[in-house]
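ok, trying the design again with the full structure, not the truncated one.
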């Protein structure tokens, strides 16, 4: 079993590539349906990533519907690849979304909200382990962002696949998840 971030990144990118678009939709819907059962809906500010469809990321549209149905404040981000910082904007009916050079859908502009206000973050990932460590694409955007959130901010990873037993090369700066939701179950790392 691969256990280094590099090996796991390769393996899980390839596993994701094998999913059909129908499977991506079906699994994304299962994840959203599982989220409904979690005790996280008493908050106001929720951060959601918009998926890179070409990478077969989880379709978060179902989560967006859930959040707007519950009248929550939804935040989406714009990434600065030079500083590796993310700026968070309120998603409104007027938000214009455009794909950046990496095919990441991002808000063009809008009402900026500081990370310290965000109460729940849905975190994208490629793989995660049974200790709540996650692997993203390796650019460190989310670790930087999550470090700016309040300690009580709920960090929920979303994954099509179940946990690996352990990721060997975890860094001090890696921020752990509180939960990870897959189509099959909820992992609680608190």
């Amino acid at each position: 079993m691969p256990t280094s971030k590099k090996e796991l990144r390769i393996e899980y990118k390839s596993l994701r590539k094998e999913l059909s678009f129908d499977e991506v939709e079906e699994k994304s819907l299962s994840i959203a349906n599982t989220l409904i059962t979690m005790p996280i809906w008493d908050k106001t500010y929720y951060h959601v990533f918009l998926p890179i469809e070409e990478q077969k990321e989880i379709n978060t549209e179902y989560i967006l519907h859930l959040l707007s149905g519950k009248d929550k404040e939804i935040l989406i981000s714009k990434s600065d690849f030079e500083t590796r910082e993310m700026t968070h904007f309120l998603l409104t009916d007027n938000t214009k979304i455009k794909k950046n050079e990496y095919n990441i859908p991002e808000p063009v502009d809008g009402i900026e909200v500081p990370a310290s206000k965000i109460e729940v973050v849905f975190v994208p990932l490629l793989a995660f382990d049974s200790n709540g460590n996650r692997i993203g694409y390796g650019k460190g955007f989310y670790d930087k962002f999550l470090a700016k959130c309040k300690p009580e901010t709920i960090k929920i990873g979303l994954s099509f696949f179940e946990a690996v037993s352990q990721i060997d090369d975890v860094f001090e700066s890696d921020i752990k998840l509180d939960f990870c939701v897959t189509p099959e179950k909820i992992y609680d790392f608190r």
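Keeping the full-length input from now on. The chain has a mean pLDDT of 94.
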